[in-house]
């Protein structure tokens, strides 16, 4: 991970933090409860600090606080901005992160993140994977599991093909494992650990 320097500029946060956080939290719940459904976070998202997309920045502003360690594949200006607005600790250890952000084409192995325990499966990482596109291009993923009627198809651009095998292993480890949110600009799609993933 890049150095967590303190000289980076601070990006603006939400104009109305309470309302915006509630709205984007509902969007996230919608995406995770209906895997493969593309959810639009809407217009008016604040400009994101490098290297984050607007969607990832909005979700993190909504989710982070002083009790939620964050891991960033590349800190850039994002670490300073999120510490300022959310008070969150930024960790260099993937296994300590409650939330994490990485490029979809170059993410660490999923097993490096917190998996939870059989008694406390919620003590795991939620990973935001920034991809090039949702609903077009790239790979066609076939999804099955809770929240899906029979199966769903999701096209994802910019996702490492090797990650699909890891997603299968992640599903098999349920109730442990990580939950994944794919982010492309202001669009998101959920891949919780309950979802079985194949490439068509």
TrEMBL record:
The family database entries (NCBIfam families) matched by this protein are listed as: PhnH_redo
What is the protein name given in its UniProt record? Answer: Phosphonate C-P lyase system protein PhnH
Q: GO molecular function, one example? A: lyase activity
Q: Which gene encodes it?
A: phnH
Q: Which InterPro entries does the record associate with it?
A: PhnH-like_sp (IPR038058), Phosphonate_metab_PhnH (IPR008772)
Swiss-Prot/TrEMBL keywords: Lyase
Listed Gene3D superfamilies = Bacterial phosphonate metabolism protein PhnH (3.40.50.11310)
Write down the superkingdom of origin.
Bacteria
Output one GO BP term: organic phosphonate metabolic process
Q: Name one Pfam family in it.
A: PhnH
């Amino acid at each position: 991970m890049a150095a967590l320097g303190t000289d980076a500029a601070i990006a603006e946060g939400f104009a109305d933090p309470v309302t915006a956080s509630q709205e984007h939290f509902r969007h996230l719940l919608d995406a995770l409860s209906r895997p493969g459904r593309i959810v639009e976070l809407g217009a008016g998202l604040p400009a994101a600090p490098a290297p984050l997309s607007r969607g990832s920045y909005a979700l993190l502003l909504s989710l982070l606080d002083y009790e939620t360690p964050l891991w960033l594949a590349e800190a850039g200006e994002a670490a300073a901005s999120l510490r300022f607005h959310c008070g969150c600790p930024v960790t260099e250890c993937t296994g300590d992160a409650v939330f994490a952000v990485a490029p979809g084409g170059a993410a660490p192995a999923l097993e490096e993140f917190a998996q939870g325990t059989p008694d406390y499966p919620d003590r795991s990482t939620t990973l935001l994977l920034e991809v090039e596109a949702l609903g077009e291009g790239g790979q066609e993923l076939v999804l099955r599991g809770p929240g899906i009627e029979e199966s769903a198809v999701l096209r994802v651009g910019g996702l490492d093909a090797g990650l699909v095998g890891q997603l299968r292993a992640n599903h098999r480890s349920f109730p442990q494992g990580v939950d994944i949110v794919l982010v492309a600009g202001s669009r998101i799609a959920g891949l919780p650990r309950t979802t079985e993933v194949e490439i068509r």
